[in-house]
Request: fold
Amino acid sequence: MDYNFDERIDRRGTNSVKYDLCRTLFGTDDIIPMWVADMDFRTPDFIIESLGKRCEHPVFGYTILPSSLLDAFCAWTQKRYSWEVHPSDVDFVPGIVTGINLAIQTFTKPGDKIIVQPPVYPPFFNAPKMNGRHVVWNSLKEVDGRFEMDFDALEKQIDNRTTMLILSNPHNPGGRVWSRETLQKLASLCYQKGVLIVSDEIHADMTYNTATHVPFSTVSGEAACNSIVFMSPSKAFNIPGIIGSFIVAPDKNLYRRFHNTLMQLDLHGNLFAYEAMQAAYHDGEEWLNQMIAYIQSNAGMVVSYFTKELPAVKAMMPESSFLVWIDFSELNLSDQALKQLLVEKAGIGLNEGISFGPGGAGHQRMNIGTPRSIVSEALQRISHAVKEG
Ligand SMILES: Cc1ncc(COP(=O)(O)O)c(C=O)c1O
Reply:
């Protein structure tokens, strides 16, 4: 069956972060919001039906994490990544940002140093700060329009107070899918230096056909015993409001310590999350493949539009997900003036590059998980606003 991603759905008035916070954040409701990372596509019917079916039973009591959900997740990782995950290495975690905070509390001490590679998803550096840890910036390099890790700088940054590195695999912003070689190099360096890797793989399921996602802990024995991985169907199936993700910790000691933290806080999932996640992993493959093809085409359209129509603005072609990193620096505007141009002249709400840490100035992140007609309208509005000044 062909799924329809062109449908425009009015999300205003649903307490949507993306739509119902526009006035607060951009000072107006009269914009196309292309910022926070959820999509405007209809949640797939097999998920809606699974929730409806559960609602037919009138009691919503305490619910166990179904072993069928863990089995569906493990079958998914096997099929999509040839990754054999054992259910005993997996725990439910409400959200991945929650998981990152718990990992910091579990595996590091106040005053420790935690490495992040900006420009990067802001909770990666806010979580260490909020937990009283120091942030070490190991900035990504941009080489031929692609992000690369700076291993020379990384090695110099690590000292005996550096205990964790938080990895976005694939990378947000920009959708860079890290190669096996890069991940092996990272695993080896961090293992030697005693730096635990927290690999956030929330965007993995949306990897385009131009790249291959490699789960971090599979790249070597050093990675398997020195990392934890977070995964979730929330982004790929557009259910982030349902709140549900997994930690995979193949190392028994790391698993036990993280599990203990979850137990202390009595953190588990809710019955609707279990239903939705299971439906996603069980029935979601065809829908997801079509959705990826759709956003991949949206991304191609954005990149070629700027190349042809507005060459001073450069969009990085993602290899995964729906978050395009756009470089406006040739316009020589301050970040404030750039935001003003986009909001007031173009009527578009993007994420400001400066919110992603060092390397973000002059950039904006555009969410293209929306019907193509909206992306197209946004591009024309930006082009018009820039040309008019
Ligand atoms: C890299 C990354 N991790 C985590 C999240 C959010 O995860 P959660 O909603 O499960 O906390 C996002 C959302 O944009 C993200 O881009």
About this structure: The chain has a mean pLDDT of 97. The chain is about 40% helix and 15% strand. The pocket of pyridoxal-5'-phosphate is lined by residues 37, 95-97, 121, 168, 172, 200, 202, 232, 234, 240, 245 (CB under 6 Å).
